Amino acid sequence: MAVSVLSMARHIAEELKDGLSGSGVRSAARGIRRLLGVDFVGLADLSGTVTWAPVEPPFYADANSLVEKVLHSENREGRSQLVAVPLHVHQELAGVLVVAGATRRADVREAAAWIVEALERGRLAASAEQAAQAELRALRAEISPHFVYNALTVIAALVSSDPDRSRELMLDFADYIRYSLAKHGEYTTVADEFHAIETYLALQRAVLGERLRMQVRVAPEVLAVALPYLVLQPLVENAVRHGIEPRAGTGHVQVRGEAEGNDCVISVEDDGVGMDPALAEAILAGRGGTDSVGLANVDRRLRNVYGPWYGLVVETADGEGTRVVVRIPRFQPGVIP
User: Using CA atoms, how far apart are residues 267 and 316, in angstroms rounded to an integer?
Assistant: First the structure.
């Protein structure tokens, strides 16, 4: 019996994840009615619209009147075997629970508490999604003006001396901008991320010349693996901007993607200036300053999608270069490009 009640509570919570105006409200009302063993249950949003289970009762006019009173007073209202209870989420009125039939007052309070908890979880999940979208917008806004200026300057300089190369780089630049700024879904594929990496590195090679050497290798079996959009490109940009550009002489960037059992492992390695491991730890924790938010952003998004045991692993030391490793499941429910 306890298992059945817990299962029903989980079902109610899932149906209310979009609030009291969502598509799962009627199903949630049916579940609450079964738990309480009453004749009718209604759930009202702040507009006063009541969703009933199993159907609208013959005394709906009286019930609607109680709902209006609760929405104005924010207090419990009732008559005979009909009661309306306010639902407060984070101390703000979110709706009303209406119960018709013989039941204990304590059971109605418990049902109301379940509903409030479900609504709180739904709002928290929605806030997390909004935060994730804001982080993605922040990543898109991080295109370096310095890089854009240098790339366009190189392209312009080649228009007369090497028009074919200039045209090729302009197409690469258009691809880079399109991928970085386009309104993608939440997920993409390893193949698309690696294409973006190759485009970016081709442009940087044109800007830096012989100062940049690169190697990109990816195993065919991981090309179709789905992953969050704009996860790999910021890591490569970070390797060039903070690893290779500050160092003297030629620098190397290596990007590899391969399968390890059920995981896809991708590494971005440079032989640049490196950094203190304590600084790398601070960057991943979001305390690295405004020019290093990309790594923390990527790490947080990976952990949100795959769980706390995933995320970025950074291996570095002053003067020893940096290696960033991404490990993700090759197959993850709900992660679809």
Answer: 13
CA pair distance 276, 52, nearest whole angstrom: 61
Contact yes or no for 328/264 (Cβ under 8 A): yes
273 DSSP assignment: -
Instruction: Return the structure tokens found at 318.
Output: 């002053």
Q: Are 196 and 229 in contact (CB under 8 A)?
A: no
Kindly list the domain boundaries of the chain, sorted by start residue.
2-133, 142-329
Instruction: Report the DSSP beta bridge partners of residue 100.
Output: 40, 82
Q: Look up tokens 């006063």; give the residue.
A: 48
Q: Using CA atoms of 35, 37, 43, 48 in order, give the dihedral in degrees to the nearest 10.
A: -160
d(CA 79, CA 143): 63
Unique residue bearing structure tokens 């806004």: 141
Q: Looking at per-residue confidence, does 220 or 178 come out higher?
A: 220
Separation of alpha carbons 69 and 84, rounded Å? 9
Query: Cβ(326)–Cβ(277) under 8 Å?
Result: no
For the record, the structure tokens of 208 come out as: 């830096």
pLDDT-based confidence at 15, cuts 50/70/90? confident
Superfamily (CATH) of domain 2-133: GAF domain (3.30.450.40)
Taking the C-alpha atoms of residue 322 and residue 273, their distance in angstroms, rounded to an integer, is 8
Look up the CATH number of domain 142-329: 3.30.565.10
pLDDT score of 163 more than 60:
yes
Range ranked top by mean pLDDT from 123-132, 191-200, 275-284: 191-200
**Tens-place pLDDT, residues 168-193:** 999 998 888 888 777 666 889 999 99
